[in-house]
Every structure is written in C-alpha cells, then in structure tokens.
Amino acid sequence: MVTSLFTMSEETPDSLIPYDEIVQEALRAVVGRVLGEIESGGGELPGNHHFYITFKTSAPGVSIPQHLKERFPDEMTIVLQNKFWELEVRDTGFSVGLSFNQIPAKLEVPFAAITAFVDPAVDFGLQFQAAVDDIAPETHDEAENDGSDSGDHPDGGDSDGSNVVSIDFGRKK
C-alpha cells in the first residue's frame, strides 16, 4: 500500500533544494519502469493488470493524431489492457499503438506530460502535478480507446484514495 500526502504551510521557508521536482521525477520513473517491464515481457500484461494513463495533450513532446487532439484539447486518458501494440519505452517517455473507434493511432507521450497512472487490478495509483503550467483544465469526454473492456473507473475506484500518491509542496508563485 502506498499512501502519501505532503502539504507544507504558508509559513514554511522556500527550499533551495527542488524536492517537489525530484519526487515528481522519481514517481514518473515508476511509470517508466512498469511500462518497461511490460515491453520487455513481450507487451503482455500479467494477470488482470491494466493501466489508465492520463496525460496533458498540449504538453511538449506529446504526439497524437489531430482528430484526438481536437476531441481532447487539454487532457486524455488511455487504457492499456487488451488491444495495444508497439509499446516502446524510452528514458523520457513512451509510444504505443491504440485503436479509437476502430481507427489505429500511434501516440507519443513524454513522462513529464503524465498526470495520473492507475492500475485498478491492484488498487494502485499515482497522481502528478501537471508539468505544463498555465494551462487551465477543460472538461472532456473519456478517451474510450478500443482496449477498455473493464468496468473499472480511471481514478482507481476507491473513494478513500487508498494507494494513490499525491504530492503537494505548496509552491509559492
């Protein structure tokens, strides 16, 4: 079980060490390692594992087809479960093939663009601070790529937030 929430008061002095950036980078490395394990295992997810990955579509380095960009101008959630292919994991991000309404698409997603990673099969989730500043969140439809046969909810399902790591260092702007 991983549960952690850090909140610093307004009176806390500014740190000369960028703890929030270091922690965010380390947690995003967890996503990279998990996806790398799947890639090295031939692209097959073990057991009932499946992943909901939410990312900022306008973040630098994100590459998705124009029709998806128009439908999801701010944020998009994809599901890696049954129907995905060509998963390639690099140090800075990943690419994967998915189908949306029977139309194949290749997506490139830098780890810095990811805002949430959930594996509902084991009630595990990570939430990240958006790496793209000054972009207001917009409401959007769920991506509903063709691989989602599960009834699990993208945010992990539990209302108590168990197994979700959320870091808030109370940045002063």
How are the elements arranged and paired?
Blueprint: E1 4-6, H1 19-40, E2 51-56, H2 66-71, E3 75-80, E4 84-89, E5 93-100, E6 103-110, E7 114-119, E8 124-127, E9 164-167
Parallel strand pairs: 1-9, 8-9
Antiparallel strand pairs: 2-3, 2-7, 4-5, 5-6, 7-8
Structure description:
The protein is α+β, with helices and mostly antiparallel strands. The protein has one domain: SspB-like (SH3 type barrels, Roll), CATH 2.30.30.220. 16% of the residues lie in helices and 29% in strands. It has helices at residues 19-40, 66-71, and strands at 4-6, 51-56, 75-80, 84-89, 93-100, 103-110, 114-119, 124-127, 164-167. The protein has a six-stranded mixed beta sheet, covered by helices on one side. Strands 4-5-6 form a three-stranded antiparallel beta sheet. A hairpin with a 2-residue loop joins strand 5 (93-100) and strand 6. The radius of gyration is 16 Å and the shape is globular. Mean pLDDT is 80; it is low at 134-138 and 150-163.
Indicate the overall shape. Answer: globular
Strand order of the largest sheet: 1-9-8-7-2-3
Average per-residue pLDDT, rounded, comes to 80
**Overall tally of structural domains:** 1
Radius of gyration: 16 Å
- Characterize the largest beta sheet: strand count, sense, and whether it forms a barrel: 6 strands, mixed
CATH architecture assignment = Roll
Identify low-pLDDT runs: 134-138, 150-163
